[in-house]
Amino acid sequence: MKFRKIEDFKDYCEKVRKRKRKDIRIKVCITGCRAKGAIDLFNEFKKREDKEIEVIPTGCHKFCSGAPVVKVELFTKDYIYQNVCIDDIDEIIKNSKKDKPVERILLKDKKFFESQVIKVLKNCGEINPVNIDDYIYYGGFSSFLNVIENFTPDKVIEELRKSKLRGRGGAGFPTYKKWEIVKNQISDEKFVICNGDEGDPGAFMDRTLLEGVPFQIIEGMLICGFTIGSNKGFFYIRAEYPIAILHISQAIRECYKYGLLGKNILGTGFDFDIEIKKGAGAFVCGEETALIASIEGKRGMPRPRPPFPAEKGLFGKPTCINNVETFANIPIIINEGGENFCKTGTEKSGGTKIFSLAGKVKNTGLVEIPLGTPLWKIIYEIGGGPIDGRKIKGVQTGGPSGGCIPVEYFNTLTDYETLAELGSIMGSGGMIVIDDKVCAVELARYFLDFVQKESCGKCVPCRIGTKRMLEILERITKGKGEIEDIEKLEKLGNYIKEVSLCGLGQTAPNPVLTTLKYFKDEYLEHIILNYCKAGQCKEIVYSPCTNACPAGIDIPEYISAIEKGDFIKAYEIICNDLPFPSICGRACYSPCENMCRRKDIDQAVGIRVLKKFVCDYAWKKGMSLKDFTILKPEINKRVAVIGGGICGLTCAYFLSKEGIRVDIYEKENELGGTVKKYIPEFRLPKKIVEKEIKDILNERINIFLKKTLFENLKLEQLEKEYDAIFISIGAMPLFYNEKNNIYDGLEFLKKVKEGKKINIGENVGVIGGGNVAIDCARVAKRLGAENVYIIYRRTEEYMPAHKTEIEEAKKEKIKFLYLLSPEKTEFLDGKIILILKRMGLADGIDKDGRRKIIEKDEKIEMKLDTLIYAIGQKTKKKNGTCRWN
Amino acid sequence: MKNRSNLEILQEIQEKKNYIPLDYLDKICKKYKISKSKIFGVLTFYSQFTIYPRGKYLIRICEGTACHVKGSRKIREMLENEYGLENGKTTPDMKFTLQIVACLGSCFMAPCMMVNNDYYGNLDVEKAKKIINSLK
After folding, report:
1. Hey, are the CB atoms on A281 and B112 less than 8 Å from each other?
2. pTM
3. Which residue of A has its CA nearest to B14?
4. How far, CA to CA in Å, does A874 sit from each of A538, A581, A730, A731, A737?
5. A438, B69: Cβ pair inside 8 Å?
6. Given A35, A301, A358, which is nearest B120 (Cβ)?
7. pLDDT digits over A353-366, tens only?
């Protein structure tokens, strides 16, 4: 039915909007979720349609990590279900008819939607993307009707100016200005182009809009055509988006059917045609001049500007080229009015921005937020923070043209200017979160490799410059970098930025320059130490676990020995790199397991426990470290080791193997340091420590006890006597003020281990959130305390203690009090009165990615018998040097 | 094929023949008086076009940022080592062609790949293997 008059169409719209819909509407995403079997799911749902139930295929529901996602609209409330499978259908239908949800599969992280302001994507996931009546039902085409009836082109531009809308493609050029320039050009023909060549790896908001709300974009283009005086529009969509091409072409067909496209639209005399042009796989075609060349059927190479496309564009005619998201914003601005629209956003740019959040965060998907929202809110609140056990390192915004912003800057507000100041760009809105398992150098190499391949080759700096930069980066990731390479990269990067022809070249060095700026230590580690912290650079990483092990044990090798049943061989492999396998098997915090690849699938391999088992087995068989200690012939060298802890002993052991005589000087009257003094007996029995120390010692190692540096041990004297001095004296307690049953954590543990009497009492408070705090609490419980409280000023997720330790403590009925910080202590009748301040979560995060906390007015009093401070250790500093000068 | 740009002509041929046979292209050029050098320039610029016959299944493996940080390289290596696939090449039995692409816009389920027009997401090596095997 073709409408030839505005009135007819308006009547029709009224009629559509009054249509009664069925009571239960089940909306299944059939676009993004298609990769997870959403089509089958939709078909199954469709079979169950009846007089109450309507099943609608829709676009994206935004929460893509829960794919397939289904929204169910009931009488009273809407529910969003995640990871729906065909087996869930019957239950969903049964419960929906009773107006109840299926709790089991409900959207888990409600915070994902809480901080979002959904405007542009409002209809996405609501309507059937290719059903024009559905779009009309939700208010579609009212903006276009309003414009064509009541607006002059100048008025449209005025509204856009007020709205402060800026181009969503990346550069942020004010949209009204572009439209005004094109409008003022005198030409027989003008063009509107919708840039849907979303080539940025990591961005998928244009795809979602094209697939989910095609009519909204067409409406935006219609308004644009009317305003600038154009009769012809083009969609340029990349070939990798077949669903987008399909939906857009179906939507265009519907519009022609209704007379919303074609000649003399709704009898107004306004003609407008839209055609689709498919891309053919070239990233550079996202650049406007290259895109125009591609539509003209040429090689997609950019040309110098000016003249800008607004003056001389497609076929030499004035052309208004905007991004998909920009067009999708237009109907909203007309509906709301420019002034209302810009109430959301910042002073310089109005409205919301859609970001595609992906990478190493819990919740991935589309995020629509007001411009000016801080990054941490997007990543930690909406994104749900890091994947379990990982640590977020930074975020790459703007794809390969953008930069990598480290976590220290996550309080930055997302806006065109602020991101540019950090060396990145907003770009089209891709956000890839990276964590400690992603190597910054490798990431920079990856992006450069990408732009290198996609460089069209027209201008020299981009074609050859990026190639040279890539070669340098490849060298570094292979561990063959030189220290001069860093300067070379910086220099070359800045040249390319300055002199390249188009946006691709001008932004290509950004990922390298920003990682150099914010993650320089990683570059240096690669170049100087041949070490990749993240365990990603294949050439210099043997395996992620060995790479993460501070002792560099050949973990894959000993695990495969265990697998073959050769436990003694496994023990030997461990002993080659580590003289304290039994202690490590019990007390190591196992960074190897944290980096284990298996962890990405289900759980890490239990490397630490395997090690413990192997050691216990070897000991039972009468083996020890001594059996694998081969001393090389003696050479005439002597080394002094100060500090007889694990570190000093390890050093002495390996030196003695090399034929060097070692003298160990220890302050206390026994060897073993922290491990022996502080780690509680139930975690690490003293006799194991003693046995392992005994095995290490040999005739080349002499021990001098009760020797304290600067007191009865003079550095000058040692320097004369020895060829080298190794200082391994550890850290000192930060807090030491023992009185009236108030202890420092480490001193408390030491006293208990030495068997000294402690009157623990009934109620014990431990302040701190680290492993020492947990140890203290568990020891206090074992000493007979009734109630043990761990008092921590943040929340559990930020506790530095090992997760398994926290779990164990909870099993022992230790109570955890969060968001409390000690203010002062008083004494009353032999009891300690601890006064605590209540803390609250503040806006913003600190440089470690933890939420900032603020003091609240509330005070809490606790009556305790014993109070333990376990708030960390530090080496004391004097004038910038450590205590030992 | 009149009124079509060079790019569209190539797209049409590829859609019909699954690749662009050079002798066929010659004929088209002669028939419509198109400059051979120009159309060849376009053909070599865009990564979508190929002048070699393609297999029954076009496997597009994504090496976009999100897929990259989530380990797409391992899947590519598996395809290379176990199925002898190589970027841009077709297996001798004309079954598979591998194409490495920059982004499939499915970053939320990285790593992902496409087989002809179907998307597959949240892959790991085992899952990818299963999908490929089911195509045989």
Report:
1. no
2. 0.86
3. A280
4. 36, 27, 9, 5, 15
5. yes
6. A35
7. 999 998 899 998 88
